[in-house]
Amino acid sequence: MLELARAVMTKPRLLLLDEPTVGINPLLRERVLDIILGMRSSGVTCVVVEHALDVVERLCDTVVVMVAGSVLRRGTMQEMQRDEHVIAAYLG
């Protein structure tokens, strides 16, 4: 949380976030997501590494699915949920 607050104060153009909601309570989680969405709407580019798919769906317009350090697919969350290669890699 402290790192996110520090980042917000610097008025960045690019924000790199590694699992920003992991390990925090649901109320705080919503606040963090609102802050990130607010930054996005003010023109900040946000790159998010996240395993919680509901967070990815809420925050990301474009999703990149990686396997073993390589890009498997790129598209919207809805496209990734239907992609046979993504399904095979993570559910197969």
Q: In terms of per-residue confidence, which ranges show pLDDT below 50 for 5 or more consecutive residues?
A: none
Spatial order of the strands in the main sheet? 1-2
The level of helicity is 40-55%
What class would the helix/strand composition place it in? alpha+beta
- Which overall shape is indicated by the principal axes computed on the Cα atoms? elongated
The ordered H/E elements are HEHEHEEHH
Task: Tell how many strands the DSSP assignment holds.
Answer: 4
Number of domains: 2
Descriptive overview:
The protein is of the alpha+beta class and 92 residues long. It has 2 domains: 59 residues, no CATH class; 32 residues, no CATH class. The longest helix has 16 residues. The mean pLDDT is 93.
Brief overview:
The chain has 92 residues and is α+β, with helices and mostly antiparallel strands. The protein has helices at residues 2-9, 26-41, 53-59, 77-82, 84-91; strands spanning 14-18, 45-49, 63-67, 70-75. α2 links the parallel β1 (14-18) and β2 (45-49).
